[in-house]
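README: folding subset

This subset contains proteins for which both the sequence and a predicted structure token string are available. Records are stored as plain text. Below is the entry for Aspartate/glutamate racemase family protein (230 residues), shown exactly as it appears on disk.
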Amino acid sequence: MKTIGLIGGMSWESSKIYYQHINEMIKEKLGGSHSAKSILTSVDFEEIERFSFSGDWDKVGEIMALHAEKLEKAGADFAILCTNTIHLVSKDITNAVDIPFLHIAHATGEAIAKSGLQKVALLGTRFTMEKDFYTKILQDEFGLEILVPNTDDMDVLQSIIYNELVKGIFTIESKNRCLEIIKKLKTQGAQGVILGCTELPMLIPSDEVGLPSFDTTKIHAQKAVDFATS
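--- output ---
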């Protein structure tokens, strides 16, 4: 089994789910008393959030590169980033290390392609929805049509994610607001929805979405497990 390197803390709420998913998947796949060989390095999310909101992505990239180097030196065989948004600086990670890096958008695109859907909605932070580091992969490499919420709904999602979810706050009111946004996107032709923020699946149960949903945290974790056991 290969050793999985995880860059976490963005937020730690989602990082604990990554750890749980990975070990549950390893147990299911290998049986017995197996658990994942893994190394976790975790950031102070307040710093990442501050640099992100100020637009200093170079600094975010420097931090991610440093943590990737720590994983490589500690013996990780490959690395994953336990977040969607910060994949914006994935090139800083791949340039800093020689070990493979598994991109969450690639894993998500593969999962959607297997489902046969063509037109999917993307929910996440404003950075994930507006910038092309995520959607470009889905469009160019998997031929998907991506729908994103309108500006007002982006503001709602941004507020819910940064003021509530990353702080461990999950309310029925916020869940219902997200479901309303998904309903709007469904009327625009969305055949499915990408929960493109690692905390969103903790807020929105898949059986309440009303469309096929793609839990990027679980998809990414499965990709890591498959790679570790290949």
